[in-house]
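So, can you check this record?

>
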Amino acid sequence: MTTSDIVKDKDVDIAGYTLDIEISSNYYSAFLDMEIFDENCKITAKDIEVFLEEKNVVHGIDYVMIESIVNKKENGHFLIATGKEHVNGENAVIEYKFNTDENLHPEENKDGSVDYKEMHLLKKIKKNGILAIKIAPTNGENGVTITGKDIYAKNGKDINFKIGKGIIISEDGLSLYAEYDGAINFENGKVSVEEILELIEGVGINTGNIEFNGKVVVKGIVETGFSIKTPNDIIIDGIVEGATLISGGNIEISKGIQGNDNAVIECKKNFKANFVNSSDLIVNGDIDLDIIMHSQVKCNGKLTANGKKGVIVGGDYSVKKGIIAKVIGSEIGTLTNLKIGIDNELLNNYKIANENSKVLGNEFRELVKDEKIIKKKIDSGNRNQLILVQYKKVLERMKEIKPIIDQANIDVKEIRKSFAELKGTSVTANVIYPGTKLNITNTFYNIKDKLERVQIIKQGGEIKVIGS
């Protein structure tokens, strides 16, 4: 106990000895200091008890210690009273029995490259398998100081599970179990179990086209001419040929796509693969791969080619949030078109939405004025047929344009948000070869010489090359 933790009272003179009291800063401990000046002095337990009461030490007094002090009559520093310290309760804690990382990353090898065969997208669970347990909150324990003051402790706070479909909660509310075999989905703290369709011999003539509401897992080849459609994730441990994949979630392909200009891939979230060749990709999230060649790509996120080779070559790539690669284009000047950031379609949509918001908004305000004037006439008894027809037309027009205005206002807000997100988008690469053409937010730039270790951005209305 440090000096700063002690409140020290003044000495009290008693014939032949002095008593002093020291109280800890939290008032849970009191120490009696005794100094004897006369060995024949008389001191009783009652004397000490009265002294303590005078100093407001009334709880947790050690009467055995008092008797010992009286009998020994020795100088000393004695713990004379101990309160009961309060203990705050512990908050509830949820322990998940699976990896809760919501961001899916390929495994990184020792050399810094990444292994696109090991994405770990699928987290399987068996029926009745345990998903999470909750350690319940505990109640606090109140305390009492040596001065007799009650100190009230705080109880721990509870926390609720966030659950979706496929979840069973135990009777005591402290455990989560899987309702059926499936895949664990954990998003924004909410856990659910999705049903899985596993196709262990690929997709082709033996299976036909696949439509399923849960996760689709394929081992083998997805053959040319066949399709997989699901509002959930598609996971393929193998190769996709000239097939169609449509997913409302993520798409992961351990090897890649040999599309032969027939593969069509659409996904609402992220796309990951080892390689893509001669395919059409429409991806709402990010694209993460090693090699992509001669493909048509529309991506609302970021395109990253960061595997062992990290190559983007040949084809057209419309990517809103930027491109990162090791190599773009080829030594033989393969035409590679890159379109980055805001596109003409987005700008056109903004102009339309903004125009609707202004023009129709002004019209609506005028209609509101007309409606009030006509209504006032009708309420005052003017029920001329012409007035009633006019009133009906005003109301119908207001009803017609109100949802258009509301949607236009929403669109303007969302597109402005997109503009802000796309500000500063760039192309970054170790090597960019001639034959690569860039369009960054509608400003064009042709690569005429080999560039190395560069970042290409738009600044002040012009394309700038940083590095090289």
The helical segments are 45-54, 63-72, 344-379, 385-422.
